[in-house]
Design goal:
Layout (H helix, E strand, L loop, with lengths): L15 E2 L4 H14 L3 E5 L15 E5 L4 E5 L5 H10 L6
Parallel strand pairs: 1-4
Antiparallel strand pairs: 2-3, 3-4
């Protein structure tokens, strides 16, 4: 299982991208789709009261072997692009 995988050295901060503008989001999506394979993860702000419902996810991360993209969903430009990436049949997730 996991112990059989080769070690992954991680990414330096300069290889982690947080697109802000529509153009940056579109460029990130093109890059992710061009690679064709990505790991993804979602994050949400924690809840602190019993019964409190999460309003997340708030962040979606796509990791390639040598770089990663973090989409902050409070930015309007990110939501349709992330939805397209998650539903894309061209991207193995």
């Amino acid at each position: 299982p996991t112990a059989e995988l080769p070690p992954f050295p991680g990414l330096s901060p300069d290889r982690i991208h947080v697109p802000h503008t529509q153009a940056e989001c579109e460029a990130a999506a093109r890059d992710i789709l061009a690679v064709g394979v990505a790991g993804f993860d979602t994050e949400a702000r924690p809840t602190f009261r019993a019964g409190e419902k999460s309003t997340g996810p708030h962040v979606v991360q796509f990791a390639l072997t040598d770089r990663a993209y973090i989409f902050q969903l409070n930015r309007p430009a990110t939501i349709p692009i992330v939805a397209d990436l998650l539903s894309s049949e061209r991207l193995l997730k």
